[in-house]
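Hi, here's the filled form for the chain we discussed.

Project: internal
Contact: R.S.
Residues: 104
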Amino acid sequence: QESFDFGADIPPAELVRWTISPTKGTATMEVMSDRFQAFPAVNPYVTSVRHGFVYTAAASGSSPAPPQSILKLDTATKTVAEFALPGMQFCSEPVMVPRLCVCR
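And the returned structure, exactly as it came back:
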């Protein structure tokens, strides 16, 4: 029987932002966070425009491991707020539920 080792079987993952300039014909990559994380999510209404926050499922450290935290990354300052689960609890990817517009 084969065993699975997160540290050995999963490559490192970074959160990167690609900026595409159609007028210049260029694409640039910026590392937003080098912490091991996956399943990035943003509000679906701002997927292709400038947005303030990215949410990800993250391991407790920089090496590959099952996710135990949800991170909220501020795209302007690159600061991170973390919701960490206690003990041996694990999470799946964040799901974005946008607020309804209550217009007057």
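Let me know if anything looks off before we file it.
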